[in-house]
Amino acid sequence: MVFETIIGLEIHVELATKSKIFCSCPTTFGSSPNENTCPVCTGMPGTLPVLNEEVVTLAVKAGTALSCEINRINKFDRKNYFYPDLPKAYQISQFDLPICSKGYVDVALGEKSKRINITRIHLEEDAGKLIHLEDEPISLVDYNRTGVPLIEIVTEPDLRSPEEAVAFLKTLKSILQYAEISDCKMEQGSLRCDANISIREIGTEVLNTRVEIKNLNSFKEVLKALEKEEKRQRELYQYKEEYKIQQETRKWDAAKGKTIPMRSKEESHDYRYFPEPDLKPVLIEEDFLKRAIENIPELPEERKRRIIQQHGVKEMQVDILIGQKELADYFEEVLSCGANPIEAANWITVDLLRVLKDIDISEEGVPIKANYLAKLIELVQTGKISRTAGKEIFDEMVRTDKSPEALVEEKGLSQISNTSELEKIAAEVLSQNLQAIEDYKNGKPQAIGYIMGQTMKATKGKANPQIVKEIIEEKLKKVQI
């Protein structure tokens, strides 16, 4: 049998608000355990939730950015279950009337594009965090995250491979960051996803039993977990027909490299949803909707079109630049310092990305000041230093906070562009390489490269290569053998 993989994602995104969804506690990451809590977010008896208006605004922005319908009437519900990190023993979420529905994201897959449909976006509060102590019979709980506002984005089962799932997540993350809906820092849990995966024989339309993999918080782990679960299910269908795929929730054990059962998969009736009695339905008026939509910043595709039209940068390079909002912002900051757009794109997409492999610019920022890179580009373009010297200066700027001018002076890398000086050096090199001249005259054009190399060697690499080439070509025309 030939199978195809069916994947749908449920993505939890922490909204970029300063306070929680139903109280005024801060959402600051990294605070001391249980510092950002109050009777409301810890569910003390007699407390009442008050909806944070900014949460609704950001959810509307998210829905608009993801081409969703904004449901003008939506409501909150109680989702009943007990976990130690959910002190109320229920979660305030949205069930049958979510804030957004029926959207889509177009994802680039190589040279093609695929539309991934979004079923719904709903609002809810986050739960706390359990800390399991190694070799101890107890677990600790930190309620700081309890009540942090979330949107849950639920896709249709439109994804057909782990690679497509990762491509979708990367595109989604970019849109949400550009729209300033969330910082999407996966390492901090601001963006995490549950993946539903099943397989079926190609040609059939029936969806087989699915498995949910919980709490994946990096692109790398999403890919690995889905690949392993895909393999496990294929083996069960092909080689172990006596076993059936169980509808269950599994967790990804990165250390062991496999998914592990957690519990049987709950259905909506297991949660005993009912309307939240302490919150009125949310009615989104026209003026509110208009203000929210008007304040959406430039999105990735819009920025891509503008950069190509305004600056003539190649589409492939622009795709790299807009892939990380911080990188695109840096590119435009370099341009604002006077840099040539084509040169800036080349330096950033080649040299800067080479050194950014081990640097998280969302946390640490770009290691070279924008005005320093702009100045370096100017020094190379005006011939004051060679491109080779420019790359050396670039690498040094990554390690230090020195300006390119200071480093050029310190390392003695100023390029010789004085024509009369270079003519004297070229003449001396030619007089010492008569065989190369003869080879050139006998139809061996590669000889000019050898003469160029000898001239650069004589100047210790400081000569302007373009001027040197012009001088040598001119002199070779006049040489008589």
Indicate the proportion of strand residues: 15-25%
Structural class call reads alpha+beta
Q: Give the tally of β-strands.
A: 16
Give the spatial strand order of the biggest sheet: 2-6-7-10-1-11-12-13-14
Shape field: elongated
Radius of gyration: 30 Å
User: Helix proportion of residues, in percent?
Assistant: 25-40%
Whole-number mean pLDDT: 90
Describe the protein.
The chain has 481 residues and is an alpha+beta fold. Helix content is 40%, strand content 20%. The protein has three domains: 3-292, no CATH class; 298-411, no CATH class; 419-478, Arc Repressor Mutant, subunit A. It contains 16 helices and 16 strands. The strands form four sheets. Strands 2-6-7-10-1-11-12-13-14 form a nine-stranded mixed sheet. The longest helix is centred in the middle third of the chain and has 21 residues, at 219-239. It is elongated and about 95 Å long.
Helix and strand topology:
Layout: E1 3-14, H1 53-65, E2 69-70, E3 73-74, E4 77-80, E5 90-93, E6 100-109, E7 112-125, E8 129-132, E9 139-142, E10 149-155, H2 162-178, E11 191-201, E12 211-216, H3 219-239, E13 248-253, E14 258-264, E15 274-275, E16 282-283, H4 286-294, H5 300-311, H6 315-323, H7 325-336, H8 341-355, H9 361-364, H10 370-381, H11 387-399, H12 404-411, H13 419-431, H14 434-441, H15 447-458, H16 465-478
Helix pairs in contact: 1-4, 2-3, 5-6, 6-7, 6-8, 7-8, 7-10, 10-11, 13-15, 13-16, 14-15, 15-16
Catalytic activity: L-aspartyl-tRNA(Asn) + L-glutamine + ATP + H2O = L-asparaginyl-tRNA(Asn) + L-glutamate + ADP + phosphate + 2 H(+); L-glutamyl-tRNA(Gln) + L-glutamine + ATP + H2O = L-glutaminyl-tRNA(Gln) + L-glutamate + ADP + phosphate + H(+)
GO molecular function: asparaginyl-tRNA synthase (glutamine-hydrolyzing) activity; ATP binding; glutaminyl-tRNA synthase (glutamine-hydrolyzing) activity; transferase activity
Enzyme class: ligase
